[in-house]
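Field log, afternoon session.

UNIT: design team B
ACTIVITY: writing a sequence onto a fixed backbone
BACKBONE:
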């Protein structure tokens, strides 16, 4: 197969590495920036195009859409209309998503959105523990994602890429990114509430802290804190039942589980990491995600996420933001 990478920023380069690691097929790429095209040519030995029409004229079988989030659906729409398989990175806006879903319906193409954290080995351990019932029914949880925004892409000014825009802001993007796997473990959300604000001195107009409260349909209560001001990178979670506690600190690359009937902590360690200089997250889940996508194209394998689900997750983000805007909270002063 011939894969067209649309966008050669951080994620576009990562997808090239993923596909090359998998030996998935020929890779070509498009980006309007000459410096990015030249870098990809030199670093990965691939053919690049400065124009999208030129890239499409090369007749790719698959499009990997690694543009800023507000451009995902326009390119997905083009892919669907031209009968191309396609994959988009994590979304934060759902403009044109309904049309893309309709265009894909009934066509023999695989068109899916990213759900990277569902391929994280620790997340899969947590889900297996919860779904097996071995830890009892989860009643409470807390999760924190935090990383100082200038550290996201230390090689470029944080004000120069999409995370600095209000519509596609960094915190706003991460909230659904984390909800994709939290709902995979805990099920549908019944109620949601949120505080969000710009609290730091970062030189940009986005909310840099989201504090989200969630009630799940099966009864679990919990909180999701997302910030882009923490000088130490965090992704840490705790899930609590009446008989067990599950703890995960991503940087430790392990899940710890305490079960009352055992009386001690079990540990589940992640496999050896494939790392890339300058990236906090390892390559492993991204490679597994691409592998699953490619298998879905080649042999009809199941991909664990759809645009319909993605639209539902984005709906949770928008509901949380409405809660914050409407100030539906009890004033105690």
């Amino acid at each position: 197969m011939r894969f067209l990478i649309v966008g050669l920023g951080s994620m576009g380069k990562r997808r090239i590495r993923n596909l090359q690691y998998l030996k998935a097929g020929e890779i070509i790429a498009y980006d309007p920036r000459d410096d990015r095209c030249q870098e990809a040519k030199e670093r990965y030995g691939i053919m690049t195009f400065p124009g999208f029409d030129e890239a499409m004229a090369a007749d790719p079988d698959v499009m990997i859409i690694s543009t800023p989030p507000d451009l995902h659906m326009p390119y997905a729409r083009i892919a669907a209309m031209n009968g191309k398989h396609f994959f988009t990175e994590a979304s934060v806006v759902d403009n044109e998503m309904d049309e893309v879903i309709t265009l894909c319906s009934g066509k023999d193409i695989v068109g899916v959105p990213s759900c990277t954290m569902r391929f994280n080995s620790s997340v899969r351990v947590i889900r297996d523990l919860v779904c097996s019932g071995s830890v009892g029914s989860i009643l409470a949880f807390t999760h924190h994602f935090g990383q100082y925004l200038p550290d996201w892409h230390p090689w470029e000014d944080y004000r120069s890429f999409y995370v600095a825009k209000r519509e596609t802001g960094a915190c706003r993007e991460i909230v659904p990114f984390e909800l994709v796997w939290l709902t995979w473990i805990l099920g549908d959300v019944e109620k949601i509430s949120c505080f969000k604000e710009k609290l730091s001195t970062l030189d940009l107009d986005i909310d840099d802290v989201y504090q989200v409260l969630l009630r799940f349909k099966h009864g679990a209560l919990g909180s999701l804190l997302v910030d882009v001001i923490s000088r130490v990178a965090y992704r840490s979670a705790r899930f609590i039942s009446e008989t067990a506690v599950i703890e995960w600190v991503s940087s430790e690359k392990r899940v710890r589980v305490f079960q009352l009937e055992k009386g001690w902590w079990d540990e589940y360690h992640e496999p050896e990491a494939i790392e890339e200089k300058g990236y906090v997250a390892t390559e492993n889940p991204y490679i597994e995600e691409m592998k699953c996508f490619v298998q879905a194209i080649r042999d009809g394998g199941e991909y664990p996420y759809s645009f319909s689900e993605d639209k539902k997750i984005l709906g949770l983000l928008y509901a949380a933001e409405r809660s914050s805007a409407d100030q539906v909270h009890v004033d105690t002063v």
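LOG NOTE: The first strand starts at residue 2 and ends at 6.
NEXT ACTIVITY: expression trials, pending approval
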